[in-house]
Amino acid sequence: MNGTFPRLAASLILVSVMPGWCFGQTFSSYADGKQFSVDVWPEDVTKAPQWKADDENPPLSARKALKLANAVREQLVQDDDDWKWIMKSVQLTPTDNPKGGWFWLVCYEAQLLKGSSSGIAPNLRLAVLMDGTVPKPDVGEWKNLQWELTKIAKKEATSREGWPGELKVDLIETKDGWDAKVWRMPKTPGGFVVVTISTAKKVTAYRKGK
């Protein structure tokens, strides 16, 4: 991953609860141009060991839940030269099932190692049931063209110029794709480059500002 993430609504770390307990709960998160959706179904929670009212601790410890979630997280998103994934929280979460039931919700966030970013950071949420099951998320394309083009342009500019700190991208659509003007912040005369990106999302030209 690379670059600055655009400002998005708080729905980027959406926890959406479907109407009616029988439909379960869906937890969505976004990273690296993908959307991850995890469904927690009441019947699956009910089949797992229950955290009874007279038990001090749940059947599955937070430490074990984190270990299981970490293994799945590493399959879905990885650290790279620009971003490092960290665990933000491990939460005991109740279901909407009238019969009750609990599961763990493990939340991750990617931290930028160099420079700065705006908007909401890449994030991932995984559920862990009390029997140790980690429901695999459905993975789909995060259809945010602006984010994708910004990422391509910043990666190209950073690799060529080695600019530290914040970068700002202005996108101009052309008949063959886009011209991305990448500014090093704060803006100064000539302190930008233009990255030309084709409709196939490939860099086809690069020039420095004047």
What does this structure look like?
- It is a single chain.
- 27% of the residues are buried.
- The protein is elongated.
- Strand 10 and strand 11 form a beta hairpin.
- It is α+β, with helices and mostly antiparallel strands and 210 residues long.
- The N terminus is likely disordered.
- A 4-stranded antiparallel β-sheet has the order 1-2-3-7. A 4-stranded antiparallel β-sheet has the order 8-9-10-11, with helices on one face.
- It folds into 2 domains: 132 residues, no CATH class; 64 residues.
Secondary structure layout:
Elements: E1 15-17, E2 25-31, E3 34-40, H1 42-47, H2 62-76, E4 83-94, E5 102-112, E6 123-128, E7 138-141, H3 145-161, E8 167-174, E9 177-184, E10 192-198, E11 203-208
Antiparallel strand pairs: 1-2, 2-3, 3-7, 4-5, 5-6, 8-9, 9-10, 10-11
* Total DSSP helices: 3
| Beginning-to-end CA distance, first to last residue | 29 Å
Number of strands: 11
Structural domain tally: 2
Which oligomeric form is depicted?
A: single chain
Helical content stands at: 10-25%
Cα radius of gyration in angstroms: 21 Å
Characteristics:
alpha+beta, 210 residues, 4-stranded antiparallel beta sheet
Summarize the entry for a quick read.
18% of the residues lie in helices and 38% in strands.
